[in-house]
Fold:
Amino acid sequence: MDPVLIHAFGLEIRWYGLLLALAFLIGYFILLNLSKEKGIKKEIIEKLVIYLIIGIIIGARLFEVLFYDFKYYLNDPVKIFYIWEGGLASHGGLIAGILIIFWFSKKYRIKFYDLADLIVIPVALGASFIRLGNFINGELVGRVTDVKWAVKFENHEGLRHPVQIYQAVANFITFLTLFYARKIKNLSPGFLFWLFLLMFSAFRFFTEFYKDLPLGYGLQAYGLNLAQYLSIIIFIISVIYLIKLKK
Structure:
């Protein structure tokens, strides 16, 4: 599939850029509706969304540049700004998003979990959109396989696992789980936030085994990559906090 949706007047509109825009747009409307359940004003949500869009993109891009493909961007620094071509590290976006929510909650005197429990729902859906963009871009491809649903990616030998689709489905399952779990009575503040981190890290850890990362792309040691090591840390912390919430 051609990663470029439209060629017009010397410009390119890519599927990845369109899906990224849709992720934020749909996430915004979902967040507006969910915020009514917490009694958070629309004006607050609108300000927060702007900070999150900017912060998540910057955080995800910086993480990608610094920890995954530093040599590539060092040789061609202008490529750092070409986010429509892909290359947003979800862990970087996650860290940036959490920091922004924490800062925003202090600034506007809103409980951190009141915001975090809401935001992780559209974030999970948005992550699914971005993985679809990775698939169309033909990046972060899976290992060579002979399964019936294997995909042939341009510039890659053999049929491969569509690992981007695996991760898109995993993120969508996380979204549905959080969306319906929020209706549970007497739900502890922070439960949805930590449940999101637990599901995100678990799914990410296992699906990474199907990914065929080139040598030199991020940390790879003892059969695991950087994303998996981070996922282990996040999973353990999530379990600890979920146990605390239960007590």
